[in-house]
Amino acid sequence: MTLPVNGARGEVALRVGSVDLVIAAEIGRLASLSTALDCKSLHDLYTRLLNVEVAATLAGIQYLTVKGDATKALASLRLQDFPACKDAFAAALNHHVDAGKDDADQEATATQSKASLGETG
What we know:
Blueprint: E1 12-16, E2 19-23, H1 27-37, H2 42-50, H3 54-64, E3 65-67, H4 70-76, H5 82-116
Antiparallel strand pairs: 1-2, 2-3
């Protein structure tokens, strides 16, 4: 992989054919992808991407690419690339789900600590 990947912000490396990409599940990109696929929920979008639906995979590459040549990648896409796409989409989406869970866990711990000290609010 020749492109730098910032894992802290949820970027994920993806190679399609001989094309290196970096994808990220940013809110604006997810909104564009969801609109393009006419998804009614995040669950619907997640399911379509991870079930390796052809249209969803093509749109995922197009809308989630933050580095690299998505057009060139789409032109070289083959069926053997679909498992790597699925894994990259899952990693990008799960990064934000896991980050949200970590934030909620930290908030719950802070609330419990205050309660144990007799503090409120």
